[in-house]
Write a structure and sequence with these properties.
Length: 689
């Protein structure tokens, strides 16, 4: 609309001898030019059904407050100073019918996609929800930093597969980090560059890995600043306010239904809409009608419909966590408010992809008890589904919900085994002993400290035993063993990995307390945590008495044993097959399209963050390109852009805190490693909370 004056100006001038028809025609063409010159973001077609179908907070009161009897509150995003793009995902923007290049070059793009300027048709709002955090009901939470902008109609010609996954015909768009909402609690509603880059990159990385996820369309930074104490150690610094554009069919989560919860027996907190059961029914109707239309059509009985809906959520959640486990992804904060009602990966905070395989891997440094460790994820998702079932009662009868929950473990195991068979290239037969083979593989990886991603990627290089194979069995096994030994940890790495995280004196006190005062012990610790610490101590003691050569010999023995079993299983794949060559080629193809070459390791994200904080956004953009094709090699994109001065630095002012961080970062030795390699030694120092 900024062009309205200049565009219409000439048409008001009357020229002698020019017909009225020509004047009308010229005006029409000028109006067409105006429409074409508008920002593509101004042409998005919004249809904000959630705000029409679900209760909206009538209060316009500013500031943090309890919101009763409503699912959304209207908010006003707070503008950023000099917003600018860090990176744009062209493929995510295409969901909205936008051309990524056009968005990048749009001078209004950073303003619109940070909430600094409101698009026509957008209705900014924040969603009210509750949640169980680390097992305890926390009461009202809500969108403390995220802001619903509205729902964009799906453009014509969208991929039918996407429409199948999103039958609502609309994409909800959010900006995360756009300022205060009624749900900001003690925070300021802002996000900073490091957390925004991590969310942006991982949202897209998960999509291209084939894992259900919310999407990220862009990340914008600015000259606005907030103070953050990164490690909660009293060393606060100024950081740039940044905003991620998030895209999903809906961001409704398990915790959305917990706003009706009565007072919790442990915390005493209750949901802000306790007693408003009619709203629960409205929410269920909305979610099922919009996002599960087949269930709505096939179950005229309300109770049966609700049971079928819950069963589908259970199935999607089981499938999702199975996929996480198979790519080594750890969410970090699996609270009920971070679980999508559509079975999508939601809210990327202190997540992490496993490097060295460790079932007890904890990506969130704040998770002292290991509640959300890698191996705990399937059970925690089952627990969260139980809390969802409680929140849906009485619309969902508890006895029916419990019967559905009993199906979860079998569903999870089925999805997990199905994925793992693909990862191992076991495609022709389903052998009952496959589960044992997979378990032994993971045990061997754990014992040898093998890299999770690279070990699986290497398996397609292990040959199948065939009559035509001129190599002897012993030579083939040795070659495969040497291949996998390269992915194993060194003695020093294993020592560091098994060092107890608890001070020995604290451990001694807790062990004594467990015997003398079990009640007090249960209040401040738990037996599982102590058992993990004792196991680490035991392993460390053994490692201290081992040499590197002895360790390597033991690792080779472990892998030789497993590879021998694996090759026997591969041989059974070929039984009865007329075209052995075709079977082997299919095996390699499936394995290499299931086991990624590249994942978003913490050190890769950290390199991109540090470059961006220094004013150079090229590494974020480069990493995005690499992650868009995680299963294949991309010539020219093997190493970070800064290796050999390959990066192009955008000039940008830095705060004193940023300069100090950069100096600290560059003072650490950074040996450049390819994106598909094991992490460098300095990566162990990265701490994500």
């Amino acid at each position: 609309m900024a062009y309205l004056g200049p565009r219409l100006g000439p048409s008001r001038v009357f020229l002698s001898g020019v017909s009225a028809l020509r004047l009308v025609s010229t005006a029409g063409m000028d109006d067409m030019g105006l429409a074409m010159s508008r920002s593509s973001l101004e042409r998005l077609e919004f249809d904000n059904v959630a705000l029409k179908k679900l209760p909206l907070d009538p209060s316009e009161e500013q500031g943090v407050r309890q919101v009763k009897g409503a699912c959304f509150s209207r908010v006003t995003p707070q503008p950023l100073t000099k917003p600018r793009f860090v990176a744009v995902s062209h493929q995510a923007q295409a969901l909205l019918g936008l051309d990524g290049e056009e968005v990048v070059n749009d001078p209004l793009g950073p303003e619109y996609l940070s909430g600094s300027k409101i698009m026509p048709g957008s209705e900014p709002a924040a969603h009210c929800y509750c949640g169980h955090q680390f097992g305890q009901f926390a009461g009202q939470l809500g969108d403390g930093a995220a802001c619903y902008l509205g729902e964009v109609k799906v453009p014509s010609g969208q991929d039918p597969e996407l429409l199948r996954e999103n039958p609502s015909g609309r994409w909800e768009i959010q900006v995360k980090g756009a300022g205060l909402t009624p749900y900001s609690r003690q925070a300021d509603g802002r996000k900073v560059l490091r957390s925004s880059i991590r969310e942006f990159l991982c949202s897209e990385a998960m999509f291209f890995l084939g894992v259900p996820t919310t999407r990220a369309g862009s990340v914008v930074t600015s000259d606005s600043r907030v103070i953050r104490d990164v490690y909660y150690n009293g060393h606060a610094r100024h950081e740039r306010c940044s905003v991620v554009l998030r895209i999903a069919p809906t961001f409704i989560r398990f915790g959305s239904f917990e706003i009706f919860k009565p007072a919790d027996e442990f915390t005493g907190r209750q949901g802000p809409s306790y007693g408003r059961d009619e709203i629960r029914g409205q929410m269920m109707d909305y979610v099922i009608e919009m996002f599960y239309p087949e269930i709505q059509q096939n179950y005229p009985d309300r109770v049966e419909r609700n049971v079928a809906f819950f069963r589908e959520v259970v199935l999607r959640t089981a499938r999702l966590v199975a996929q996480w486990q198979c790519v080594g992804f750890c969410h970090g904060v699996l609270n009920t408010d971070n679980m999508s009602i559509l079975g999508l990966t939601l809210d990327y905070g202190p997540y992490g992809f496993m490097d060295r395989f460790d079932p007890d891997f904890i990506c969130n440094a704040s998770d002292n008890s290991g509640r959300y460790s890698y191996q705990a994820q399937p059970a925690i998702c089952r627990w969260n589904l139980g809390k969802l079932a409680e929140a849906l009662a009485p619309e969902l009868p508890p006895d029916r919900a419990e019967a559905v929950l009993e199906e979860y473990l079998d569903l999870y195991n089925r999805f997990y085994l199905e994925n793992m068979r693909k990862k191992l290239g076991l495609l022709k037969k389903e052998d009952p002993e496959d589960e044992i083979l997979i378990t032994k593989l993971l045990q061997t990886m754990h014992n040898t400290g093998a890299d999770f991603t690279n070990t699986f990627r290497s398996l397609s290089l292990i040959s199948c035993p065939t009559e035509e194979n001129s190599e002897g069995e012993e030579d083939s096994v040795k070659k495969a063993t040497d291949l996998l030994i390269e992915q194993c940890a060194s003695l020093e790495e294993l020592k560091a990995a098994n060092k107890p995280t608890m001070d020995p004196r604290e451990l001694a006190v807790l062990l004594s307390m467990a015997q003398s005062n079990p009640t007090l012990f249960q209040m401040i610790s738990d037996r599982a945590t102590i058992a993990r610490q004792l196991e680490r101590l035991s392993k460390l003691k053994d490692l201290m008495e081992t040499t590197q050569e002895e360790l390597k010999t033991k690792q080779a023995e472990d892998w030789t044993s497993w590879i021998t079993q694996y090759r026997k299983r591969l041989a059974r794949e070929l039984e009865g097959q007329s075209d052995v060559q075709a079977v082997q080629e299919e095996r390699v193809r499936v394995m290499d399209s299931t086991n990624p070459r590249v994942i978003l390791r913490n050190y890769i994200a950290q390199n991109a963050i540090e470059a961006a904080e220094n004013g150079d956004f090229s590494e974020v953009q480069r990493v995005l390109k690499v992650l868009e094709k995680p299963f294949s090699s991309q010539p020219g994109l093997e190493l970070p852009a800064w290796v050999g001065g390959g990066g192009t630095s955008a000039e940008g002012e830095r705060d004193e805190g940023e300069e100090q961080q950069q100096e600290a970062a560059t003072s650490m030795p950074r040996n450049p490693v390819p994106y598909d390699s094991k992490p460098p030694a300095w990566a162990n120092e990265i701490c994500v909370t």
